[in-house]
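Many introductory courses stop at the sequence. We go one step further.
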Amino acid sequence: MSTTAEPQAARATRPGLVLLVVSAAVFLASLDLFIVNVAFPALSRSLDASTTALSWVLNGYTIGFAALLAPAGRVADRIGRRRVFLTGLATFGAGSLGCALAWDVGSLVAFRVVQSVGAALVTATSLALLLHTFPPARRAQAIAVWSAVGGVAAALGPPIGGLLVEASWRWVFLVNLPVVVAALVVGLRVLPESWDEHETRRPDVVGTALLVLAVGALAYALVDAPERGWGDAVVVASFAAAVVAGVLVAVRAARAPAELVPVLPLPLFRARAFALACLSIAAFMAAFAAMLLGNVLWLTGGWGYTAVEAGFALVPGPLLAALAAVPAGRLGARVGCGVVAGAGTALFALGGLWWLTQVGADADYLTAFLPGQLLTGLGVGLTLTNLSAAASSALPPGALATGTATFGASRQLGATLGVALLLAAVARSSGELPGADRGWLLVVVLAAGASALALAIGRAQHPDLGPAPREEAP
């Protein structure tokens, strides 16, 4: 467990500026999960690539992000969260520049993996930096803002991407650079250093590689199966590899040598609220990712919207999510995080059900599409803050970085599987109503499962995580 001494230098830190820097970095990391969705048509034309191939522009980012979050958290605990956070920002910026200069799909996917490394380093340390800066009485509010920024950024990807694609798809990545530079400059001045002086273990590289293999093989099988056939030898072998690698991940985590940090912190999952929150966020983010990509494909294909029109058609949802997030955090603190998150995920499922039953071949945005946007947007606002708080409520201070990183990994793994399942559902009928209906049905099923898991959490409260670990002024 971390020590609890807090020198006066740490007290002089300005929490507002720390929140600004951390929020900017989390905004970029979350934004780049989904900003490329609306750029798919432009990327396909420019790079002469199929939607299936382009899916790895999304999955390369989410798989790397998910697999590296937990190891990044422990590295940060050992060598310093400020140091890892700033390194992650610089890495993310370098990856963004590489994406903007990419010459084919392979190079774009490779630079997206570099981005994912930076995003993992930033996200794994962001909440710990906040909680070590804010006093206990203000930590629930900091968690609410942190959660809201990530969720809203992910939902704002399409409208921002739609505007940027009008100039060039490369601006989708170049737009990150000014924010990265500004966050680095301010972060060097205001972020306090903190670490766990008792942490001497190293991340488990073998376990991390097995996790990447398991998720990557599963995503590959789901994306390729509709084209190759579900009985194809390559598809069957990919599913088998995913199962074997997944089992090996669990075995490796259970028997990790004492000097290594397992890729899955299995003891944390003994806490019921934490385990349920991780499962619920995975299912919810699968529904969210499927909804977002599916709606972009439908609006640009089925209704013939331009990238800009599709982007702005998706604005009402994130706006409502932004408005609801902080009040939802307060409501969760009053009546229970699981209860509010369960209601949010149920509203999200109702939004998918609305589209499934109301959207037709003829464009009818106001009465057929917009109500679903409002329902899903409100659902996002109610859900993300409270599932994050429910997970945090079960973590002891010494496991904060690892626990929040594991929860974040669950989010990214869910998003990866959501994209893969969506592409499997709409295969060969992208832009056609039957394919869109299958996509919305998938959203309903996933969100309903997330709701049941969230409700099982019950009245978990926003945490008071006690005194901050030892800190050193930058």
